[in-house]
Amino acid sequence: MTYDAKPHHRGRQAGMQTQRPNGEAGPVARCEDVVVIGGCGRVGLPLGIALASRGRSVVLYDINQAATDVVNAGELPFAEEGAAAPLVEAVRAGRLRATTDPACVGRADTVIVVVGTPVDEHLNPDLGAVPTALERCMDHLYDGQLIILRSTVHPGVTALTERLLERHGLDIDVAFCPERIAEGHAMTELFELPQIVSARGQRALERATAFFAVLTDKIVPLELEEAELAKLYTNTWRYIKFATANQFWMMANDAGLDFTRVRQAITQDYPRAADLPMPGFAAGPCLFKDTMQLAAATNNTFALGHAAMLVNEGLPNFIVRQRWPDPMKPPKRPRPALSPLRPPDQRSETWLNPARSTVSSCSGATASSIRATAS
Ligand SMILES: NC(=O)c1ccc[n+]([C@@H]2O[C@H](COP(=O)([O-])OP(=O)(O)OC[C@H]3O[C@@H](n4cnc5c(N)ncnc54)[C@H](O)[C@@H]3O)[C@@H](O)[C@H]2O)c1
Predict the structure, then answer these.
(1) H-state helical runs in 22-64
(2) Do residues 240 and 207 share a domain?
(3) Full residue range of the structural domain in which residue 303 is found
(4) CA distance 12 to 250
(5) What lines the ligand 1 site, CB under 6 Å?
(6) Residue 367 maps to which CATH number?
(7) How far is the CA of 44 from the centre of ligand 1 (A)?
(8) Mind listing the pLDDT tens digit for each residue in 158-216?
């Protein structure tokens, strides 16, 4: 990690005054309303399109040249309902453009960071993802900006970012305002979901609140560290609910019973069980890794999170063993059918997940059998 980089010799200015990125005195030419770092990804691009659709001038900064080319051509690099037309319109109107040039962060008052925050092969989070992305642009940041962290972060990363900026002699307001959309639904959810807004100081809180008012009037203020936890709890809660359904489903199948009938019976006109999800592959780009971020944050004492991981990630193996108990021998006769899983949604976290790679790693015949079972 690179948090201890030496501060730049750039004089800190009081309050909202600005200083040119190159250290010269005088006002900065602020040509854009907002720059989004990591802007061509699943979160950054819909956010940029939504802001542009509300009249903001947006630059998407991304290290992926191919992704910036696609966006500048007015094309969506992934499926996102309702995003294609406003993207074309925003690019044509000059309200949205993508670039790999980090100097762009010096051209807007507000900078949003939405780079990926994965866990590694040992399930450890990368605490450096957000600070490292900012360090790449550090020479272009200036006093008086507002930096909004929107990536889902390990608790404490916002404080690390505040200290990093301080060490560079920068007087910048920092806010943490997590993204809570589901892929494929961003263009409605960005305008409908409440926005959690957090910052250490009143000024930063007010600026972040005013920024998101362009998308929604439902603002939920929190303390910074509360907000970091709130986002991790949001995803972990869903992951645990899926694990509960998946474990119940495996138990019923082991007993030769139809889980669908049992679930139907306990949820029918019984509101206290109505939130029991259908079983299915779980994790997606976020649920699994954010549960593991929370586990790491609690010194790996999060027994419930780890149990959920074992259940959800064990589901493909359970299905394979039901269909094909001995991997060395094909079954002599067809095995009894399993009760159905939640239909896979190709765009959501119920399907795009680490479990899918487990399925893919099975032999072709077994994988087809699993897909047939799952659909
Ligand atoms: N995908 C979702 O549905 C979702 C929902 C809520 C929150 N989140 C969170 O949002 C964050 C981003 O997720 P995502 O799905 O958009 O990831 P993504 O991988 O789709 O996008 C990240 C983008 O950042 C770019 N990037 C990486 N390092 C960079 C750097 N140093 N400077 C500039 N660009 C850089 C990548 O090229 C990529 O285009 C994560 O923290 C994730 O947990 C994701």
Answers:
(1) 44-53
(2) no
(3) 230-374
(4) 60
(5) 37-38, 40-44, 61-64, 67, 114-117, 133, 136, 151-152, 179-181, 183, 285-286
(6) 1.10.1040.10
(7) 7
(8) 999 999 999 999 999 999 999 999 999 999 999 999 999 999 999 999 999 999 999 99
